[in-house]
Amino acid sequence: MEKITPQEFQRLIRSCQVLEKDGHGEKVLRRHDGIIIKIFRRKRFLSSALLFPYAQRFSRNALKLWAFDIPTIRVVKCGHCPNPARDLVWYQPVEGQTLRDYAREQSLEPLMEQLGHLWRHSMTMACCSALYTGGISLFNRMEHSG
To answer: How much is the pTM?
Structure first.
């Protein structure tokens, strides 16, 4: 992860368009060249983010999606600023319309129904897989004990 000084962090915020912000500060920025910068903060003092920062998880998850041929963001780099304590990810956004923009123009109900169907299907497959795997394990134990 690239080290970002507090001065560089402040310059970055001033030079970008703020896309999302909350009571703790900026969360998502857009550079003049279209690169998006996602800013993560650790919410609790003791957190798994100490060992595996949110920025690295975000980047790893994007790579996993690409491995399944699912179009997603392309991570450019990750960085860390010690003060304020923030992790950052620079990425190229996915082509097309954002869900937020889509929702402004159309109802999300049909999309939510499709997502619900996919989720139910994936949960059914996960349960069947767990039962199948459990059955094999039990069968192997019975075979070896007799």
So the answer is: 0.69
